[in-house]
Structures are given as structure tokens and as C-alpha cells.
């Protein structure tokens, strides 16, 4: 384990750290004293636009003549399509907030989380965060060909933990994930639920200033969901801020103190979970 951690710390040291200049993140090395009412995330008139290159325009769809002409003229597909996924979203999140984000498929929930995490540059508008945001998604970058054990070590390093902290947390992460002896096997042998549980266990082993969870709880069973909810409560109590995207509205209602309803990239409602979820269910 010591050898492995040393090897991984070298790997990490060589990774280029490319700051995203479009997202203004203000890392706070000394976590602030828990103060409710202090803003942690400010999203100001945020617009996110995806550019899809090589998209087929409507009049070209399924048209063999166009495809053949392009081939003969050796032309590529110059078309570029823009998808305006988030359209002028503005809100402020505070210490101790657990904010659920609901909305239909394609309403912009994952895009908003990725923008808060600093992974997508705004087309216009700004995101300000106090502290380091961490995104935990069902597709979080664990490596399928590596064992659970190696992924735990790698994941902990990626979150900035020291070798001593990784050692201290290792057993707790394995216990919490409930994957047992599978920890010695490559993640490619895990069910999707086991993978999701391990990702959640790793990400939540550290105290986060801002933790963003994208559907990560959806694949867990009932018992695991209860444990995860408990852990989200602990993160809130340590004055962090949690954002949770889940299609299961019960999870959101039981875990969050505030809900944002996104509709076609815009905020339709923002407030008390019961009220927002009732309106969402009607509309
Ligand atoms: N990488 C991408 N490239 C182009 N368009 C994208 C990309 N990712 C998402 N989109 C588009 O952006 C819009 C918002 O997608 P997003 O995944 O944020 O929605 P969502 O609310 O999280 O959806 P779901 O509930 O289905 O997960 C959709 O129209 C989607 O097609």
C-alpha cells in the first residue's frame, strides 16, 4: 500500500494543472469557520452553450445525394450546431445548504453542475465558488481496469488527500461502499450499483466545501441510500454545501432544504422542497 501511494503521488505531481480561466473559482485553503448565511456559490446570469461540430442540418438528414456529393468533393461536414443548455441562471447558495436540482430530461441539470464544478466554461455570466467544488457523478473518472483498491488510492489523491489521510480513510471507504472482497478485483467486474457506491464512498470520505452529486445515489439499494443521506447530512452540518441531481424526488425531499427546478435551461422555481416538488409534479 505504501509503495502504491508513493507511486501514485508521483503520477499526480506530473499531471498538468490547467486552470479554467472562464470560471472564477476562489479556492480557500483554510476552510472558513462554519457560518450559516455565508455564500459559497454565486451563479450570475450563467449561459452555457455546447458546440457540436459535424452536425447534420435538417435539410441534409438522410439525404444520400448530399452525402455522395460531399464524398466526391472530399468535403467534411463544416456544420456546427449550438445547443444552448443553460439560459441565464442566477442564484446564491449558502453554507449548510443541500440544494436539490429537479427538471425533465435535457433541462440542463448536469450541465449546471459541471459548470459549478469548473468543468464547462460559461458562454457568458459567471460562477464564483468559495472553496474547492468536487463533482461526484455516475461517470466520475475511476478506472475500470484498475482494482477498487487502486481506485480508492487514486481517487483520494485526486481529491488532494495526503498519504497518511488515505491510509486512515481506506478501511472506512471499503466498509461504507459495502463492496467487500470485490475491492481486490478490477472495477470492470462490478455491477453499476457497486461502482456507484464505491464512487460515493470515495468522494464523501473527504470534507468538501462544495459537493456536487449527479444521480450518484440512484443506483444504490435502499440501505445504501439511507447511509448516503446520513452522510450528506453530515457534510451539511460541517457547513459544506451539497448540490444533488436525482430523478427520485423522495431522495431530494428527504435530503435537501432547498430545491431548484430547471426547465429548458432556466430556473422555473427555487425554494422550499415540498412546494417546489408539488409544483413540479403538477406541471
Ligand atoms: N456534450 C454535449 N454536447 C452537446 N450537447 C449536450 C452535451 N451535453 C448535454 N447536451 C445538451 O444540453 C442540454 C442539457 O443537457 P443536460 O445533460 O444538462 O440535461 P439534464 O437535465 O441533466 O438531463 P437528464 O435528466 O437527461 O440527465 C440537452 O439538450 C442536451 O442534449
UniProtKB/TrEMBL annotation:
Example GO CC term: the record gives: membrane
Pfam families noted in UniProt? ABC_tran
Q: Does the keyword ATP-binding apply?
A: yes
Map out region (Disordered) in residue numbers: 1-40
ABC transporter domain location, by residue?
66-281
UniProt-listed SUPFAM superfamilies: P-loop containing nucleoside triphosphate hydrolases (SSF52540)
The similarity annotation says: Belongs to the ABC transporter superfamily.
What is the recorded name of this protein?
Answer: Teichoic acid transport system ATP-binding protein
Its taxonomic placement starts with: Bacteria, Bacillati, Actinomycetota, Actinomycetes, Streptosporangiales
Amino acid at each position: 500500500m505504501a509503495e502504491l501511494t508513493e507511486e501514485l503521488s508521483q503520477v499526480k505531481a506530473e499531471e498538468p494543472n490547467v486552470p479554467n480561466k472562464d470560471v472564477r473559482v476562489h479556492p480557500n485553503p483554510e476552510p472558513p469557520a462554519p457560518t450559516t448565511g455565508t455564500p459559497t456559490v454565486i451563479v450570475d446570469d450563467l449561459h452555457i452553450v455546447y458546440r457540436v461540430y459535424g452536425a447534420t442540418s435538417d435539410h441534409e438528414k438522410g439525404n444520400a445525394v448530399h452525402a455522395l456529393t460531399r464524398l466526391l468533393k472530399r468535403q467534411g461536414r463544416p456544420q456546427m450546431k449550438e445547443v444552448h443548455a443553460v439560459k441565464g441562471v442566477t442564484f446564491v447558495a449558502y453554507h449548510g445548504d443541500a440544494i436539490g436540482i429537479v427538471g425533465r430530461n435535457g433541462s440542463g441539470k448536469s450541465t449546471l453542475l459541471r459548470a459549478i464544478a469548473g468543468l464547462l466554461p460559461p458562454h457568458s455570466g459567471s460562477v464564483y465558488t468559495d472553496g474547492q467544488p468536487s463533482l461526484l457523478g455516475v461517470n466520475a473518472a475511476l478506472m475500470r481496469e484498475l482494482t477498487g483498491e487502486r481506485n480508492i488510492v487514486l481517487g483520494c489523491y485526486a481529491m488532494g488527500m495526503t498519504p497518511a489521510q488515505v491510509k486512515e480513510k481506506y478501511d472506512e471507504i471499503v466498509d461504507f461502499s459495502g463492496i467487500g472482497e470485490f475491492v481486490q478485483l478490477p472495477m470492470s467486474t462490478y455491477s453499476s450499483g457497486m461502482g456507484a457506491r464505491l464512487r460515493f464512498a470515495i468522494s464523501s470520505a473527504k470534507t468538501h466545501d462544495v459537493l456536487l452529486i449527479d444521480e450518484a445515489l440512484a443506483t444504490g439499494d435502499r440501505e445504501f441510500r439511507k447511509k448516503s443521506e446520513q452522510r450528506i447530512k453530515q457534510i451539511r452540518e460541517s457547513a459544506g454545501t451539497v448540490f444533488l441531481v436525482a430523478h427520485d424526488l423522495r431522495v431530494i425531499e428527504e435530503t435537501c432544504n432547498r430545491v431548484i427546478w430547471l426547465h429548458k435551461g432556466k430556473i422555473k422555481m427555487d425554494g422550499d422542497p415540498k412546494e417546489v416538488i408539488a409544483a413540479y409534479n403538477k406541471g
